[in-house]
Write a structure and sequence with these properties.
Layout: E1 19-24, H1 31-42, E2 45-46, E3 49-50, E4 52-57, E5 62-65, E6 71-74, E7 86-89, H2 100-111, E8 115-118, H3 122-128, E9 136-137, H4 144-150, E10 155-156, E11 162-165, E12 168-171, H5 176-189, H6 191-200, H7 228-235, H8 244-251, H9 255-266, H10 270-288, H11 293-300, H12 305-316, H13 320-331
Parallel strand pairs: 1-4, 1-7, 7-8, 8-12, 9-10
Antiparallel strand pairs: 2-3, 5-6, 11-12
Helix pairs in contact: 1-5, 5-6, 8-9, 10-11, 11-12
């Protein structure tokens, strides 16, 4: 009988050692996806100490075939999962018929309360193990219909970057895996540490999981049509009142054209994007300073303590005071 997925958040590792992440390479592996956990988690530091220890394993150690026709060498077998705090499956062509040893190891890790995650088509493997039944999950958008047909017991959410459902996390393809890993870093060590990691891997510090996987039109090249300069201008003055008219004026566009291009480039409306960035700034200030809540609200551009409290509770389930206390325990 398949053990049920975890029904509670996994217990974090002791503060004296790195969080252990074991990545399962299920052949044929997607090499880009496989590189993401090491890239993100390997770059994460708490002070001078590594925050994570990343191990890659596979059912039969040795040469593993990649989806693009090259071979890679994986030295660890499935026993590496026994030490893991988090177990991840990255992109793979094994959308059916995954190795039973992988499925058994995933079920056992879930039964022990370990955090389970996937990048891209790795969600097909989690679903084959029964770990996504009655859960919300996502995968690469072009595979969503196939996923829904194969696994009707899973509540597939197409079009979002990542989904977290009670200790089980799934992401869309490719760069969405970076967003998922940064989201995990943020949950494990806080916004300040996640921001530092994002800078090291040259990634956006926080894209919300519900943001669209794909944009309506291709991203424009940097230049006259890109709103990157306007977003940077807004980020530099989050503490100031900024309206749609202000953003449009800076971009030299009408409000209607700005809104259309903003959504095309980011998947969000300008005001949604601003709110998300202000919440992210507020979380970082709460974690790294002892400023009163009303000052945090002002410096993050959320205006008042009541506004900060409302949006933070909606986003994290915690009041500013509770969020700050949780962050201090996490960083101790």
């Amino acid at each position: 009988m398949t053990p049920p997925p975890p029904t509670h958040r996994p217990t974090p590792p002791p503060p004296h050692r790195p969080h252990r992440v074991t990545v399962i390479a299920v052949p044929p592996v997607t090499t880009f996806d496989l590189s993401i956990p090491e890239m993100v988690f390997g770059a994460t530091r708490v002070g001078e100490d590594p925050a994570y220890e990343v191990t890659v394993c596979t059912p039969t150690p040795g040469v593993v075939t990649a989806a693009i026709g090259i071979d890679i060498v994986v030295r660890h077998g499935m026993e590496a999962i026994e030490r893991a705090d988090t177990v991840m499956v990255t992109g793979t062509g094994a959308r059916v018929g995954a190795d039973p040893r992988v499925l058994d190891a995933l079920r056992a890790a879930a039964a022990r309360g370990r955090r389970i995650a996937s990048i891209c088509t790795g969600a097909f493997v989690l679903a084959q193990a029964g770990l996504l039944d009655s859960r919300r999950a996502t995968t690469f958008w072009s595979m969503s219909e196939e996923f829904r047909e194969r696994f009707p017991a899973v509540d597939i959410v197409p079009g979002v970057l990542f989904v977290e459902d009670d200790g089980v996390l799934t992401s869309a393809g490719l760069s969405a895996g970076i967003d998922l890993c940064l989201h995990m870093v943020r949950g494990d060590y806080g916004a300040a540490v996640a921001n530092a990691t994002a800078r090291l891997v040259v990634a956006a510090p926080a894209r919300p999981g519900g943001q669209a996987q794909f944009i309506e039109t291709p991203l424009p090249a940097d230049g006259d049509t890109s709103l990157a300069a306007t977003r940077a201008w807004a980020l530099a003055r989050l503490h100031e009142p900024t309206t749609l008219t202000d953003l449009a004026r800076h971009a030299g566009l009408s409000v209607r054209t700005l809104t259309r291009r903003f959504r095309s480039e980011t998947g969000l409306s300008p005001l949604q994007w601003l709110l998300h960035q202000r919440l992210h700034r507020a979380r970082e200030i709460l974690e790294t300073t002892s400023l009163p809540v009303d000052q945090v609200a002002v410096r993050s551009g959320l205006g008042t303590a009541d506004s900060l409290r409302t949006h933070l509770v909606r986003s994290t389930g915690l009041t500013p005071t509770a969020y700050r206390a949780t962050a201090r325990v996490r960083q101790a």
